[in-house]
């Protein structure tokens, strides 16, 4: 179910002209599969943004 949802979301984003890096893809999979908490997810997103990486590149 997660894989199907991820593929659909990724296809939608790509139709808009954006791409999602593998690093961001894995982060989203981790939160959706409950391997990390929402707080951990937010901290990781903040960390990526502080490194100059956006969720959608």
Q: What's a quick, concise take on this entry?
A:
The protein has 57 residues and is mainly alpha-helical. It has helices spanning 2-15, 22-32, 38-50. It has one domain (2-50).
Structure commentary:
It contains three helices and no strands. 0% of the residues are buried. The protein has helices at 2-15, 22-32, 38-50. The protein has 57 residues and is an all-alpha fold. It starts with a helix and ends in a 7-residue tail after the last helix. It has one domain (2-50). Helix 2 packs antiparallel against helix 3. 67% of the residues lie in helices and 0% in strands.
Question: What's the SSE blueprint?
Answer:
Layout: H1 2-15, H2 22-32, H3 38-50
Helix pairs in contact: 2-3
H/E element string?
Answer: HHH
Radius of gyration: 12 Å
Instruction: Kindly report the average pLDDT value.
Output: 84
Helix content: 55-70%
The number of helical elements comes to 3
Number of separate domains: 1
The biggest sheet amounts to: none
Low-confidence stretches: none
Query: What global shape is seen?
Result: flat
Strand content: under 5%
Q: Count every beta strand, where a strand is a DSSP E run of 2 or more residues.
A: 0
Termini Cα gap: 25 Å
Name the structural class: mainly alpha
